[in-house]
Amino acid sequence: MDKAALIDFISPLAKGIEFDEEQQFLTVVIPRTELHRVAKELKENSETAFDYLFCLTGVDWPTHLEVVYHLESTKHGHIVVLKARTEDRENPVLDTVCDIWPTAEFHEREAYDLFGIKFNNHPDLRRLLLTEDWEGYPLRKDYVDEINIVEL
Amino acid sequence: MEVAEKNKVSTNKPFESQEYFVNMGPQHPSTHGVLRLVLTIDGETVRHIQPHIGYIHRSIEKMCEKDSYRQIVHLTDRMDYLSCHINNAAVCLAVENALGIEVSDRVKVIRTIIDELTRLASHQLWWGVMGMDLGAITTFLYGFRDREMITDIFEETCGARLTMNYNLPGGLAQDIHPNFQKRTKEFIEHFKKKLPEYDELLTGNVIFQERTKGIGVLSREDAIAYGVTGPSGRASGFSCDIRKKAPYHAYDKVEFKEIIMTEGDAFARYKARILEMWESISIIEQLIDNIPEGEIQAKTNAVIKLPKGEFYQRVETARGEFGVYIISDGKKNPYRLKFRSPGFSNLFVLNTIASGGKIADLVASMSTLDLVMPDIDR
Residue ranges of the domains in chain A? Predict the structure, then answer.
C-alpha cells in the first residue's frame, strides 16, 4: 500500500488518529488508549501485515514522552511509523506491544531503563543496560549527572 | 536423634536432579566480550537463558545529543567495531539525505568497496573465533592471517586499523591511497584461493557438522518476530538484506545474490556467511577497476545544521540491519538520535533457539549469531 492507501486503511480504526505525510515514512500518531488495539489490527490484518518491528524508541518532549514504533511488512514491503504519547512526564504509562511483536519486550525494557516509560502488562519490566539501583533516567533532557556526564 | 533424622532424608534420593542457576560470563571466552548469561540448567540441559547486558554501556545516544553531526560519525565505529565503515556511512547517508546532498559516483563506488571489505574482514574474524569456540584452534590463525591483508589496506587509506573513520557527511576524508586498487586486487586473488580452504578445514569436518546441524533452529516466523536480521535472519529464510530492499551507495549498480537458506540452524547461519563472502568478493571485483573520477567531498557548510524533521537511514552491516534515527529541531546537534543495532535484536532470540538444548550447543548457537557486545550495549 502507498501512503494514501495506508491513511485510508488506518483512519477508520480509531478516533483521534493524526497523520504526518511530510516525513520520509508515513507517521501516525495514535491515542494511547487505542494503541494496543490498532497495533494488533495492523499486524493481523493481511492487507497491512506489519509483522516486522525494526525500531522502537522513546523520545523526551517538554510536555510528554513519546514512543516511536517503526514497522515494516515483510509481505508487502510497506513501512509505517506509529507514535504514542504519554499523558505527562511525571507518570508516563503506555500499553506494551510485546505480545504482538516479541522483540518489543527488550526494546521496551530499554525505553523503561533510559526514559522511565512504564509499559502496562509487560512480563518483565526491569532495568536493562543500567544497574538495578541506578537513579534517574539518563536519556531525559533534565537528567543531571555530574560524575558520569562531562560537560565541555 | 535429629542428625540421624536429617541423614535419613538426605540419603533417600542422593542423585536427585534439580534446576539451578549458573552464570555464563561476563568473563567467558565464548561470549566475546562482556556478556553475562544467567542459565537455568537441569543437569547439562539449558532450561532458560536470561541475558544481562550493559557492562560497556557508554550512552552513546546521550553523547550524540551534545555533538555536531561530524563528531557523531566518530562515535559510531565504537559500537560495532567490526562494521565501522558501514556504521559511519549510515550516519553520513542520513545527514546527506536530510540536506539533499548528492555525493559523486566516485564516493559511492569507493564506499561500496570499503563496505564490502569491512564485511569480509568481519566475517573472517567471525569464522576464526567461531571455529575456536567449537574447538578448532587453526581457524583462528587462518581467519586472522587473511584479515590482516584487509587491515593493511585500510591502514594505508584510512590511517587506522580498528576504529577507522573514513566517511564524512558529503563524502570521504581523503582520496584512496595510490596502492589501494593494486593491493585490493592482490587480496581478492589471494582470498579466492584461501576461501575454499575454509571449507576444507571446517565446513566439511564431520565433528563440526555434528555440532552445528539441527542445533539452535530458528524459524522464519521467530526471526521476523524477534527482528533477527543479517546472515542469521537470512539463514532462516527471512529476506532482510537492506542492500537489496533499499539500495544505497552503488548497490543498485552491482550484481549479487541475497543468500537465503531455509534450515535456520547453526550450520545454515555458518553457511550463509561463507556464501556471503563469495558475494562480497564478486561485488569488489565488479567495482575495483571501475572507480569513476570525481570529487571525493561535496560542498558542505562548516557547521552542519539539519532541517526540522525526522530522518531514518537503514544499512546492512556484517551483523544485520543497522538503523540511524535522527530527530532534528534545526540545530547543529540532534534533538534525539537512536541507533538500531542489529546485535541487540539478535541477542534476545537466544533463549528461543537455545533453551532445551545442551550447554555446549548454546555456544554453537551464540557463535553463529555473531554477537559484538559494544554494538549491543552502545
Answer: 3-120
Identify the burial level of B105 via C-beta atoms within 10 angstroms of its C-beta, where 0-12 means exposed, 13-18 middle and 19 or more buried. Answer: middle
Residues with Cβ within 8 Å of A151's Cβ and at least 6 positions away in sequence, in order, are none
- How, if at all, do strands A18-20 and B36-42 pair? unpaired
Looking at the complex, report in whole angstroms how far the Cα of residue B53 sits from the nearest Cα belonging to chain A: 6
In CATH terms, B56-377 corresponds, of 1.10.645.10, 3.40.50.700, 3.40.1390.10, 1.20.1290.10, to 1.10.645.10
B228-262 residue pLDDT tens = 999 999 999 998 899 988 899 889 889 898 899 88
Question: Grid cell 493481511 — which residue?
Answer: A46
A74 touches chain B (CB under 8 A): yes
DSSP state of A71: E
Distance CA B124, CA B154 (A): 15
Q: Are strands A93-95 and A118-120 parallel, antiparallel or unpaired?
A: parallel
The closest of A64, A66, A65, A68 to A56, measured between CA atoms, is A68
DSSP state of A48: T
pLDDT at B1 over 60: no
Inter-residue contact A105 to B226 (CB < 8 Å): no
The reply to whether residue A102 touches residue B312, judged by beta carbons under 8 angstroms, is no
Q: Sketch the domain layout of chain B as residue ranges.
A: 56-377
Residue in chain B closest to A100 (alpha carbons) equals: B225
Residue B251's identity, in one-letter code, is Y
**Domain over A3-120 is classified CATH 3.90.1140.10:** no
Rounded CA-CA distance B55/A1 in Å is: 42
Residues of B in contact with A55 (CB under 8 A): 312, 323, 325, 338, 340
3-state secondary structure of B231: helix
CB contact under 8 A, A53 and B227: yes
Mutate to test the interface with A, among B57, B60, B241, B337 (most CBs of A within 10 A): B57
**Among the partner residues A101, A107, A129, nearest to B225 by beta-carbon distance:** A101
Kindly report the pTM of this predicted structure: 0.87
Place of cell 573465533: B129
Complex ipTM, two decimals?
A: 0.89
Report the residue of chain B nearest A66, measured CA to CA: B336
- Does residue B191 surpass a pLDDT of 60? yes
CA distance B194 to chain A (A): 36
Q: Which chain A residue is nearest to residue B345, measuring alpha carbons?
A: A103
Residue B235: name the closest of B269, B202, B208 by CA: B269
Q: What is the DSSP string of B135-189?
A: T-HHHHHHHHHHHHHHHHHHHHHHS-SSS---EETTEESSPPPTTHHHHHHHHHH
